[in-house]
Amino acid sequence: MDGELEALSDTATNCNLPSATETISDFNQAKLDTLEKKAVHLRLVLEKDFKAADIKWSLFVAAAFSFRYESCLRPFPPSFLKNGVKDMDTLLSVITDVPALDLVLQHLENLENLANIADIIDLLFYVLVRLKEPCLKTVPVEAHDSIITTGRSSAATPRPQYIFQVNSSCKSTTENKWKELAKNHHTFFAYHGNRLENFYTILNFGLQQHLNKNTLLGNGVYLSPELNTSLPFSHGGFGWGASCIGGHLSCVAMCEVIDAPEGINYQKPVSNEGDGIYEDQKNKSIEQGANGTSTTQYIVTNCDLVRLRYLLIYAKQTASMRFPTTNSNRNVGGLRQWLSRHKLFSILLGYGLMLATIGFANNQPIHYYYKILLKKLDFAYSNVKI
After folding, report:
1. How many CB atoms are located within 10 Å of the residue 103 CB?
2. pLDDT, tens digit, for every residue of 41-57?
3. Regarding predicted confidence, which is higher, 80 or 24?
4. From CA 255, how far away is CA 188, in angstroms rounded?
5. Structural domains of the chain sorted by starting position, each given as residue range(s) with its CATH number in brackets
6. How would you label 156-165 residue by residue, b for 16+ Cβ within 10 Å and e otherwise?
7. Residue 201, φ and ψ in degrees, nearest 5
8. What is the pTM of this model?
9. Cβ contacts of 317 within 8 Å, gap of 6 or more
10. How far is CA 369 from the centre of its chain?
11. How far apart are CA 67 and CA 81, in angstroms?
C-alpha cells in the first residue's frame, strides 16, 4: 500500500498543470512569433516594389475614409469586425497611426519593438500581403508611352505620373474564366474613369455595375477607347497623406475587353439627322462604324468580359506634402495628434469658440469693461513713461 501511495504521489506530481502566468507567457510568445513572421513578409513586399505597396495602401485608405465605406471598403479587414458590426472608429484610428512606409520599414528591422505597433503590422499585412491577388507592379517611366499607345489617346492627352500593371496569378479563377471566354474572340483595350475611393473594390473584385453612377445611356460599365473621354469621370480624391506618390490622386483603369457583341453596347456619334445624340450599334465594328465615325463609348453589361490591366495614376499633390511621423512612441503626440484623431470634436470646439467670439463682440457690458481696461492700461503706460 505504501508503494502504491508513493506511486500515486509521483503521478500526481508529474500531472501538474502549467500556471496561469506560464500560459499567458506562452501565448504572448506565440503571438510575437506570428508578429515577427508578418513583419518579415511585410518587409519583403515593401522592398520588392515600394511604390506599388504605397498606392495599394492609399486606395485602401481612400475607401476607408469615404462616407460610402459600406460599398467601397470591400473586402473589409476581418479583425475589425465585432459581432458582425464594422468597427470603423478603431479602424480609422489605426490608419491614422500608420507612419510613412519608409518609416514602417525602419520599425520592422527592430524586432524587439514590434509589439508596440502590432495593430499597424496586422492591418498592413492584411492589405499588402494577405490580399496578394491581384499584384501591382510599377511600370518604368520610359515604358509609359508604349502602354498609353496600346489604347487610343491623342497627343494632347495628359500623361499620368505613375502607371501600375495589374497581374493575376495562374491560379486565379477569375483570370482563367476570362481567358476561357476570350477564346475565339478579339480583345481590345479601353479606359474607365471612376472615383478614387472605388478603386480598392475595383482592384479586388473587378469592375462592377453598382459602382457606376452614369446611367445616361443605360445600365452597365462605361468604357471608352479615348483616355480624354474617361478622364472627366476620374474624380480626384484624398488618399493617404503620408504617401510618397501624393495625397490627392485621381485614377483611370485601363482594361482589356473581350469583343462579344452579346455583352457590349457600342455607342458612337450620329452623323446624320436623328432624334438622339447616340445610336445603338451592337453588331457594328468596334473601331469604326458604317459611316466612318469612331466609337466613343462601350457599355459593358457582362462584367466577366472586362479585366483590369493597368492603373493610371494622376498625382495632384507632390510628395513634398507628406507628413511622416518620426516618433516611434505612438502614445506621445500631444494636443495636435489628439485633435487630429478626434476631428468631429475639433470642428465642434472651433464652432463653439466662433459663436463665443461673436457673442462677446456684440455684448455691451463686455465693450464697457474693455474700454475701462484700455484706459487703465493707457494710464499705467503714461505713468511709467513719466
Report:
1. 16
2. 999 999 999 999 999 99
3. 80
4. 8
5. 24-130 (no CATH), 135-321 (3.90.228.10), 334-381 (no CATH)
6. eeeebbbbbb
7. -70, -40
8. 0.70
9. 246, 247, 248, 249
10. 54
11. 18
